[in-house]
Amino acid sequence: MKEVKYGMEGYAAKLLQYALSRAGLEPGNADGICGRRTTKALQQFQREQGLAADGVAGKLTWAALYPYITGYTLHRITAGDTIYQLAKRYGTTMEALRIANPSLDPEGLSIGSTLTIPLGFSVVTHTIPYSSLLTGLMLKGLIMRYPFLSLHEIGRSVMGRCIQAVTIGTGSRRVGYNAAHHANEWITVPVLLRFLEEYAAAFAHGGFIGGVPARELYETATLHMVPLVNPDGVDLVNGALSPQDSFYGQASALASYYPHIPFPEGWKSNITGVDLNLQYPAGWDIARRIKFDQGYTRPGPRDYVGSAPLITPENRAMAAWTKENDFSLTLSYHTQGKTIYWQYDDTAATDAKRIGEAMSQSSGYALESTPYESGHAGYNDWFIQTWGRPGFTIEAGRGENPLPLSQFEEIYGENLPILIRGITLSP
């Protein structure tokens, strides 16, 4: 975590404000400006934690704030500890403690052992823009709360950021969801993470999600998710990449060749200016011709197909992940348009239309054929062409990218039935 102090601005300051708010303090709006109100809240937090109240968020302060970002802390058992007392002390429940610590013996706590303590609030947030760092912290929090989830790295971005996949379920059928191939469509990241958290919580507590028993979903299919395909690009769009960083400067120089596209909010590509959803070997030559005719002939904020398919580390990671898991169905999340695309060119998998119609009916999204001009070299195109199985591109929300967080609840509500039906209706 970067050091933050009075007068500083940027994503780290925004994350600090978010964490302080979760800790019950009042740093003001998460505007990314460490002003007097934020500094006062920071000093109060430091005093409460027994730290030097210098108003500087350094290593020790960030360590103390970590539980308020990830939603959990660790507790070393001492003499006299009981599950009831620990739940009361940390504002959680005995059931949450049991779920997070599956080998826990409430009657035989071992002095010196460590327990994971879920705190009394949800892990996943939709109150601040996402970054690769925040995504990783959300995933860490979910894994610690729900140890039946599994998390692993499938690759690294150009800048070395981790691209992670998370898995839930035990069913023999495999389903794959992904989000944020495009940087300024990052609002799809918390959509998948929120679904994952609600699904995991419902399963752990024997409950329902979207009216469906979570255990039914869990035993029907194994769901694999990559919630953030393009970490570098998302960091650029949301200010988590410093303007002083050399990659930021390179991206800015590339954007200057496309002055009609606002920078950085108009950026869709990876950090080297390659559009990750035009990188798959399914009509790539056609996509190249179309995009070159439109003027996207060099790396830039959007629509540059690259010099060949699968040249980026992000795309190679996604391709390997997909081949390894042999999915029966995939959902790829984008924004915007409230549309579900279900074909590649004139190719459609068996049952794809039936599943798409069910998704459309439950969400209110239109089921449409992909326009020819944008219907090549995408992940969904490649999946349908290669495996002949149902793949869907979901264009969530409506407006101008990046969509504001004020749309999140509406977007999530519309897409919850799609996310469920991707599991229950897959062939």
Features:
about 425 residues; single chain; two-stranded antiparallel sheet; 15 helices; alpha/beta; globular
How would you describe this protein?
- With 427 residues, this protein is α/β, with parallel strands linked by helices.
- The chain has 15 helices and twelve strands.
- It has helices spanning 11-22, 36-48, 59-70, 83-90, 94-100, 132-145, 188-204, 214-220, 231-237, 246-255, 284-293, 313-325, 352-363, 379-387, 408-424; strands spanning 72-76, 114-118, 150-156, 162-168, 173-179, 208-209, 212-213, 221-226, 329-335, 339-341, 366-368, 391-396.
- Strands 3-4-8-5-9-12-10-11 form an eight-stranded mixed sheet, with helices on both faces. Strands 1-2 form a two-stranded antiparallel sheet.
- Strand 10, helix 13 and strand 11 (366-368) form a beta-alpha-beta unit.
- It is globular and about 70 Å long.
- Output the radius of gyration: 22 Å
**Please, what is the oligomeric state?**
single chain
Give the neighbour order of strands across the main sheet: 3-4-8-5-9-12-10-11
* Basic shape: globular
How is the main sheet built? Answer: 8 strands, mixed
Taking pLDDT < 50 over at least 5 consecutive residues as the criterion, the unreliable ranges are none
| Beta-strand proportion | 5-15%
Share in helix: 25-40%
**Class computed from helices, strands and strand pairing:** alpha/beta
- Gap between N and C termini: 44 Å
